[in-house]
Amino acid sequence: MAATLRDTRSAELYERALQYLPGGVNSPVRAMRAIGRSPIFIERGSGAEITDVDGNTYIDYVCSWGPLILGHANPAVVEAITAAAATGTTYGAPTAGEVDLAEEISRRVPGIEMLRMTSSGTEAAMSAIRLARAATGREKLLKFAGAYHGHLDGLLAQAGSGLATASLPSSPGVPAAATAATVVVPWNDAAAVERAIAQHDFAAILAEPYPANMGLVPPAPGFLDLLAESATQNGALLVFDEVISGLRVARGGAQELTGVLPDITVLGKVIGGGLPAAAYGASRDLMERIAPAGDVYQAGTLSGNPLAVAAALATLRQLDEQAYLRLQATTEQLADGLREAADGVPVQVVSTTGLLTVFFSQEPVHDYAGATACDTDRHAAWCRALLARGVYPPPSQFEAWFPSLAHTAEHVERTIEAAAAAFAEVA
Ligand SMILES: *Cc1c(COP(=O)(O)O)cnc(C)c1O
What we know:
This protein has helices spanning about 10-20, 75-85, 95-110, 120-135, 175-180, 190-200, 225-235, 255-260, 285, 305-315, 320-340, 370, 375-390, 410-425; strands spanning about 40-45, 50, 55-60, 115-120, 140-145, 180-185, 200-205, 235-240, 265, 280, 350, 355-360, 390. The chain is of the alpha/beta class. It folds into two domains: about 75-315, Type I PLP-dependent aspartate aminotransferase-like (Major domain) (Aspartate Aminotransferase, domain 2), CATH 3.40.640; about 320-425, Aspartate Aminotransferase, domain 1 (Alpha-Beta Complex). The chain has a seven-stranded mixed beta sheet, sandwiched between helices. It has a four-stranded mixed beta sheet with strand order 1-2-3-13. The radius of gyration is 21 Å and the shape is globular.
């Protein structure tokens, strides 16, 4: 039987929001248009659960799109933020915490000796590209279709007219000149990468090593090695955008998991512990090109913000090897359960530690074309059915689920039960 969601208060707030905020939201995916409904307004969160303004409680698999690897309102994180706020929220001068955090991250992430903090992943990606261009004296970028690196102009390019051609902007307002230097090829397509590097001198090959913004589409065996070799051969720098995968798929991110080291790493999401923070890092040589050590300008009023740094340190303190083993077990339990719950509905459940996608597809998904070929209508109906049963999935086929360390075996069991009922409803 179809369950329905009580959402009177959310609907009222949405009506008001539409008058003052474009689309009623401050970031597009929150509007839930991709699953054919209006947004749900959240009132509070605790651990793995969130409660909306109508009093519905959900097991949350968005977790703010990745930052909340410990779940909502983790007591140690709340305490750290509160203590930091009581002594001043920002100074625009260095603090001890920033040094602790930089040291901790460089210990964890193999490709980072030195880093610069920013306030968003977009800013960090933009700055990493500036550094790559400065270091190589080149302008062109190679990126992958379906990969997201924030909303900077130069990367809002889609795979247009073939891999040898510079792409057209994928949003109005982005000048053609901004994307003219961006070449887009399909993910997991070794031949396309080889053709591109034969034709262009790139400043950077830019990749999400575990792409999770077209749904989760892990690299084919050897593909990341090919990217590293291609970068070396081409004279380009390899930039891993680990804004999602960093500090999530393993303690040291995808680069630790796969053993493939990038020249520059971009971090975000988990690194802020739920507050606005991101970073880019590399070898000391490269990073000392950044001002004031070097000549590449980059700055930020709230960069290294004391509250974000306190939240980050309190988060990282809880992320030891054991934590990743637990997150892996939770993710596997969820993936296995969802696969079984599908019971004949054609889906591909793809997962790695802390990330999961249910593609509504008969075929395995290897790239963006495969992701966009999914049955998004059925996926949308399934997501609405999950919401009505107290499970809050990412409201788009092209996003990943973010199980957290606050999700217990019992949460996962309840999720699988709800998912089975939702699959039956859309079968
Ligand atoms: C979220 C994301 C970004 C952008 O980060 P913001 O903090 O939203 O600006 C960049 N790259 C990847 C891989 C992301 O998932």
